[in-house]
Amino acid sequence: xxxxxxxxxxxxxxxxxxxxxxxxxxxxxxxxxxxxxxxxxxxxxxxxxxxxxxxxxxxxxxxxxxxxxxxxxxxxxxxxxxxxxxxxxxxxxxxxxxxxxxxxxxxxxxxxxxxxxxxxxxxxxxxxxxxxxxxxxxxxxxxxxxxxxxxxxxxxxxxxxxxxxxxxxxxxxxxxxxxxxxxxxxxxxxxxxxxxxxxxxxxxxxxxxxxxxxxxxxxxxxxxxxxxxxxxxxx
Length: 235
What we know:
By secondary structure, this protein is α+β, with helices and mostly antiparallel strands. It is built from 5 helices and 10 strands, in the order H-H-E-H-H-E-E-H-E-E-E-E-E-E-E. It has a domain at 95-205: Galactose-binding domain-like (Jelly Rolls).
């Protein structure tokens, strides 16, 4: 058997790994025996061989073929569904202060709410260090727009946080979440104040369950760093 080629990325490497768990006492379920069945054959239009597509020799020919295929399939990919009216009024928040959590931060929560200490200005979406077992902090101040404040309920929505987080609004924990690939939101009407509001998000990272490399050693954690539900691929 030929060895598998090396994976080109981390998720491809996961897919090419073969793990056979040892589970003593389990036996394969018996399979039903299907009797052989012969299908009738008769001559028809499929009798004659189909013409082969011309061989593509160059990169330019490949690009032309791809463009032609996209042009051919474009009518079948058009979205003819009517636009649904949105029942939500959105106020987006992108500018945050950010820093890696320290021991002092864990002891002095009120100082975090007040914004004391050194912070780095970042814009969401933000991807930063450190990798592995660590916690970082995101803080911002905002005033609720009148169009949002007048609504019956107000929620804080997140497009995704890697990996676990606790969300504090004006010092009140409005919710927690775990998992990188999922959008989530918390109702926050009770925690909101007139005028200035302080939003603090504590983000916890971890090593993956499949093992992470640090200083030449494989370290296992509790982080499931892969999509685990049903999905589909765009054409």
